[in-house]
């Protein structure tokens, strides 16, 4: 029987939301093993002088405990 844990994390990118998601999963994978899925909880943008300068996502990441 597997036991899974869900954590929340935030990640960002100056490019787009997809890159922010990938950045978050890539970074989490360095210290968390057995990641099975992630859900985008929220998306935000930072606007500076009328332009989007940063894409930010809040993720719920599910992984299986060892």
Name the descriptors.
58% strand, 3-stranded antiparallel sheet, 66 residues, 3 strands, alpha+beta
Helical stretch tally: 1
Give me the count of strands.
Answer: 3
* Span between termini: 11 Å
Structural class estimated from helices and strands = alpha+beta
Radius of gyration: 14 Å
Strand content: over 45%
Shape: elongated
The main pleated sheet reads as:
3 strands, antiparallel
Whole-number mean pLDDT: 97
Order of helices and strands: EHEE
What does this protein structure show overall?
The protein is α+β, with helices and mostly antiparallel strands and 66 residues long. Helices cover 20% and strands 58% of the residues. It has one helix and three strands, in the order E-H-E-E. The radius of gyration is 14 Å and the shape is elongated.
List the helices and strands and how they pair.
Elements: E1 4-13, H1 17-29, E2 35-48, E3 51-64
Antiparallel strand pairs: 1-3, 2-3
């Amino acid at each position: 029987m597997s036991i899974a844990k869900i954590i929340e994390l935030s990640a960002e990118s100056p490019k787009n939301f997809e890159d922010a998601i990938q950045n978050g999963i890539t970074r989490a994978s360095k210290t968390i093993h057995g990641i099975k899925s992630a859900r985008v909880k929220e998306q935000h943008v930072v606007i500076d002088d009328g332009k989007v300068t940063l894409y930010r996502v809040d993720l719920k990441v599910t992984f299986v405990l060892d």
